[in-house]
Amino acid sequence: MRTDAVSPRDHSPAPPAAAIGRHSTYPRSLEGKVALVVGGAGAIGAETSRMLKAAGAKVVISHLAAEKDTAAAAALVAELGEGHAAFVADVVDTPSLVALRDTIAARYGRLDILVNAAGFTKPVPHADLDALTDELIDRMLQVNWRGQFATIRTFAPLLRASGDGLVVNISSIAAFTAVGSSIAYCAAKAGIDVMTKALGRALAPEVRVLAVSPGVVDTEFVPGRGADFNDKVSASTPLKRIGNAQDIAAAITACATMLGFSTGHTIQVDGGRAL
């Protein structure tokens, strides 16, 4: 299943590696580049898609097959316009990722940017050990760690072929504060930070790997969090507000347009929450 508005195949060659190095100018244009935003139907994924498109990239988003996600993806593609597309894929289903990779290769001939914006959580009080069941732990790690790694593994050949590939993972300050929706979620995000560092070495120099680490963000990602929670967090955050999807998307986009000499690092976007 797909919801797309794709122009004819664009197999523009990647720029030679020698042209990407010390003489880069900033902000970098993303004209001619293709970006995949995994989880693009969500709040952060959608804002990231808009910003990458504004910077010049052709954007492909992946989303789950649920009716709500399909409708959101279709609306976003219609907004983005010609040359952008959305396809169903699930980060816990590697064959669906392989199929998506093959589709992108056939339609665009390249992939330059991968944004891992898919995720899942369920609030569990840290002191309630019995509520954090084996099944929930497995699901949390399956989606939030294994899924991101499987996505990178699947698309690494296309990103390497770009010669100037970029992966941006979505982490969380829960990775190092150990304050988050559940202990398993904190652990999964700590794993993302380590994975980002390890892959920053392993995939260099053809691919840079960065992570963006939000604090509390005003989206519907964490079930049950409302205005009272957000107000309380805002009052105790140095910048006196919580983040929004645009804040995180701007940081992700900056990884592509401004941070050309960075890899393996995690960038905090939390209003000072972790200070």
Automatic annotation (TrEMBL):
Start and end residues of each Ketoreductase domain: 33-219
Region (Disordered): 1-22
Keyword terms: Oxidoreductase
PROSITE patterns given in the database record: ADH_SHORT
SUPFAM superfamilies per the UniProt record, alphabetical: NAD(P)-binding Rossmann-fold domains
SMART domains per UniProt: PKS_KR
Keyword Protease: no
Classification via Gene3D superfamilies: NAD(P)-binding Rossmann-like Domain (3.40.50.720)
A GO MF label: oxidoreductase activity
Composition bias, Basic and acidic residues: 1-12
InterPro entries the record matches: KR_dom (IPR057326), NAD(P)-bd_dom_sf (IPR036291), Sc_DH/Rdtase_CS (IPR020904), SDR_fam (IPR002347)
One Pfam family per UniProt: adh_short_C2
Family label: Belongs to the short-chain dehydrogenases/reductases (SDR) family.
Identification of the protein by name: 3-oxoacyl-ACP reductase
Source taxonomy: Bacteria, Pseudomonadati, Pseudomonadota, Alphaproteobacteria, Hyphomicrobiales
Gene name per UniProt: fabG
